[in-house]
Amino acid sequence: MQRTANSKQTPTGRPQAQPTTNTQQTRAPPQMIQNMARVTDPKHVPKEIRDQFLKKIHFCSQPYDFNDDTKNVKEKQERSQYLQELFDLLKEPNFVANLVVPHLDLIIEMIEKNIFRPLPILKKTATNGEIGMEDDDQLIDPAWTHLQPVYEYFLQLIVNEQPDVKSLKIFITHSFIQEFLELFDSEEPREREYLKNILHRLYAKLVPRRKMIRKAINDCFYTLIHETYKFNGAAELLDILASIISGFAVPLREEHVIFFKTVIIPLHKVQTCQFYHEQLLRCSMLFLSKDPTLATFLVEGLLRYWPFANSAKEVMFLNELLEVLEVCEISKLEPLIPKLFKRLIKCIAGPHLQVADRAMCFFENDYFLTILKSYKPFTFPLLVPVIAQIADTHWHKVLQESLNALKTILKEIDYQAFDKALNNKDPKYLYIIQDAKNQKKDRQKIEEKWKNLTKQALQKNPNFKEPIVPYSDTHIVGEHNGLNNGNITII
Amino acid sequence: MSENPFEVLKEDMENEEVYLKVNAMHRVKVVATLLGSDKIKSQLIPYFETLLKKEDDEVLFALAEELGNIAQIIPNQSSCLLTLLEQLAGFDETVVREQAVRSITIVCGFLADNEIANTIVPMIIRLASNDSNFTCRVSAVSLMCPLYARAGNQKEKIRQKFTELCSEETPMVRRAVATKIGEIAQFMDKIHVIQDLIPVLKQLCQDEQDQVRLLCMESLMNIAKILNSGENKTNILPLIIQSAEDKSWRVRLALSKIFADLAEAVGKEIADSSLIQIFSNLLKDTECDVRVIAVKSLARFIKFVSPEKLNLIVPLLQLLSKDPFSQVKQNACEVIGQIATLLPKEYSQSKLQQYLIDLMADDNQDVRRNAAKSAGQFAAAIGPEALNQFVPFLKKCMDDPKWRVRKETMQTIIQLALTVKNPDVFNKQLESVFVMFLKDRAAEVRSMGLSQLPALIATYKQEWAVGNFLSKCVETLSKDVGSLYRINALYAIQQISFAVDGPVAQDRLWPIVQKCLKDTVPNIRFVSIRVAKSLSKKIDNQQTLNQIKQAINELIEDPDRDVKFYAQEALQN
To answer: Which residues constitute the domain of residue B243?
Structure first.
C-alpha cells in the first residue's frame, strides 16, 4: 500500500497523469508496481509483467509530432503515463535488476529515438508575423514537455547503481556521444542542463569511455573555433570540462597540455566568447592551478586575440589577464612584457571609460606592481610619459584622479627613473596619446617613401600595378565597418 | 634619395598598430619588384619566416595573399615560396589557411607539370598525412581539387588519399571532403568517379553528422551533372531518395534548395519518372522551413519536367496555397503564376484560378502582395477572355489596407494592360482598376501609376487619354479631395499633353489647367504653372498662348514665394 502512495508522488513534482478509465481496454493495469509486489521470486518475473513492460517501452519509442498539441492527444497522454511508470520502476532495486538491466538495449533505443532528433529552430512568431513586430518572450520548444520525462528517466537510469559499467558501456558508442553532443546546440536551456548532468554522470561512471568522450568534446570545440563560431552548449560543455580538469593528475599529460593550447586558448578569440567566458575562465584557472607554467601561454594568447571594437569583451579580457598574471612566474614573462604593457597603456588611453578604469585596476594589484618593478627599464619609459600627460588632460574626473595617484605610485617606486623617463620622451610610445594630426604627419614620412618606391617599381616594370592598401588613413574602424564616420580616430 | 625597399618594409612592420602592418604587408609587391628574384630568396623569404611565429593573424592573412602576388613577379622561381605557404596552410586560423591554399594554387599555375607531380603532390600528401593537425588535412583536401588534373602519374595517389580522408574520424575533415567531392569529380575521369568517388559519397551521405550529409547535397548535384542518365539512375537517384527521407530537416532543406538544379542535372527522364514523387514529399514536409524552400525551388523545377507530368504537381498546389505557414503560401503564389504558363489554359483556369483568388484575400499582406503579382502572369497565360473573372478581385486588392499590396496590384494591372494590347478588354476590364491610382492614399501607388502612364497612352492612344481617362482626372480635380490628389491628377494631365496634338491640348486641357492656376493651395498653383508650360509647347494658337502667358504673369505677384519663383522661371524661358 505504501508503494502505491509512493508512485503517485513524483520526485519532480510533475502532475500525475490522468487516472485511466475502464473504457479503454488497451490500457494495462496502472500499477505495474503493485503487480510486481505480488511476485514472490524476483528472479523470475512472470511473462505477462515482462510483456507489459516491453509494451510500454515500445510505446514510448513511437515518434509523435510534439509541435502540434492537437494531434494524437490520447497517445501522448498515454505515453506520459507510461514514462512515469517506467520512471517509478527505477526506484525498486528488484525490478531494475530483473527488468531494466536485461532490457537495457531496448531502453537505450527508446531514449535515442526520443532525444536524437534534428534540433528545431525556435520561432518567435509562427504565422502571420508582420514585419517589425518585436517579441521578447522566451523561446520555448513546444516539444519540451514531452522530452523532459525522457531526459529525467535517462538521468535516473545513469544515476542508478545497478546498470553497471559493463552493461552500459556497449551502448555508449562513438556515434552515440557524437549525436548526444550535437544536442548541446539546443536553444532550450533546460534541455542543455539535462544534457550536461547526464554527460557528466556518464563520464564519471564509464571510465573506459572517458578518452572517447573527451575527444568528441574536443571536436565540438574545434568546430566552434574554426567553422561555426556559435554553439549554444559551449558554456555547459565547459562546465563539464571544469570538473574533468580538476580530476586530472599532476603533472599533466601531454594530451591535456595540447588541449589547453589548441582549444582553451583559441576559444577566447571566438566572437560569441561572451556567452561562455565565465566557464572558460574557470577552466583556464583550473589548468593553471595544475600547471602554472601554462600561464605564460595564456597571457600570450590573450594578447594575441585581443578584441577589436568590442569594449565589453575587452573588460572581460582585462579581468582574465590580471588573474592569469598572478599565476605567472615573473622571469618567464620577459618576452611578453612589451606587448603586455603596450596593450595596457592603449586601454588606459583609450576612449572607453570602463576599459580604462579596468586597466587602471591592475596597478592596485601588488603582484602586478612587482612585475612592473622587475622590468623597470622597459615599463617606465613606456608608462611614465603617457600617464603623466593624460593625468593632466583626461576628460573624466575620477579617472584623472586615479591617474594622478598612479603617477605618485610610479614616482615612489623609483624617483630617478621616473624623472628620467619623463624627460627622455621616446617618441615610439608617445604615439598612443598623440592627436590625429601629429600621427598623420609621422605617417606621411613613411608614406612618402612608399610612394617613391612605387614609382621606382613602375619604372622597372611598366606593367606593375599599384598595391591596394586596405586601411586608409586613420579611419580604420569606420572603413572596416563600412560606416565612414569622421568622428572615429585611432588612439 | 633612393631608399632600400627592404629596410622601408622592415621599418613599417615595426609599427605598433596591426592595421599599419597589414598595409605594409600589402605593399610587399613593391619591395619584391625592386629587389628581384635573388634578393627575394636571400632576404625577403627568411624575413617572412621570422614573422610566422610572432605576427597577428591579420598580418599573416595579408602575407598569405601577397605570396601569391610575389609568385606573379617571379613566375619562374615561384616554387621558393612553397615552404612558407605550406606552413601557412597548416595554421590554426581558418582565413589564413584558406588564403594560403589560394596562393598555392596561384604558384602552381606557374609550375610545369613535372614539378606539380614531383613537388606539389608530395606536399599535398604530406599535409594530408599530418595526423596531429587536422587543419593541414583540411587544406590538403582543398588543394587536391584544382591540382588533380595536373598530377600526371600521381593521380592515383591523390585519389587514394582523398578517399582515405572520407573515412576520417575528425568531423572537420569529413566536412571538407563532403564539400569538395563534387568539385574534384569535375576533374576526374568518369570511370574513377564511379569507381572511387561514388562509394565514398554514399558513405558520406550516411554520415552520423547531419552537417556532413548536408554538405553532400551540393556535391551530389555536381556529380550528377557529369554522369549520364543511366549512371545517375543507378548511382545518384538512390542517394536522392535517401536524403529526401533524412531524419534531419536541415538535410532535407539543403536538398530542397538544390532540387531544381538537380532535376536539370539528371535530365528529364529521371525527373519525370522519379523526382516528381520525391519532391512531392518534400513539399509536404512536416518542417515548415523545408516547405518554404521546396516551394521556392518548385518554381524552377517545373521547367525541367515534361508538361504532361505537371498535373501531378497541381494537386499539391492546393495544399500549399492553404499552408498554415505564410511564407509557404507566399512562394506558392509565384509557382501558380509560373505553372499557368506551362499548362493548358482551361486546365489552369479550372484548377488553379480559385487558389490564386483565395491567396489574394489572404490574412498576410506579403501573401496578398505576391498573389497580386502572380495574378498578372496567370491572367496573361489564360488569356484576355478570362480576365473578367479576375478583375473584381484585383479591384478588391486595390482596396487593401497595405499600400505594398496596392502597389503590386497596380503594377500587375499595368503589365496586363501592356501585354494584352486590346482596347476592348482594357476599356471593359482593366481601366476601371487602373484609374484607382488617382485616388490612392499612398504616394508610392500614385507615382507608380503616373510613371507608367506614358506607356499606356502609347498603347491605347489619344482617344482613351482625352476621353475616359481625362474625365477621371477632371473628376479628381473637381472634387475637393486634398491637394496631393489634385497635384497627381495635374501631373497626369501633363503626361496626356505630351501625347496629344496642339488643338486637343488647347481645347481640352488648357481650360482645366487654367482653373487650377487659381487654386487656393500654393503647391497646386505652381504645379499648374509647370503643366501650363508644357502645354504651351504644344499649342500653336497665339491667342491661347497669350492667355497662358498672362495667367502665369498674374502669379508673379503671388503671396507665396515658391509660386512666384516658378512663375518667374516659366516666363524667363
So the answer is: 230-306
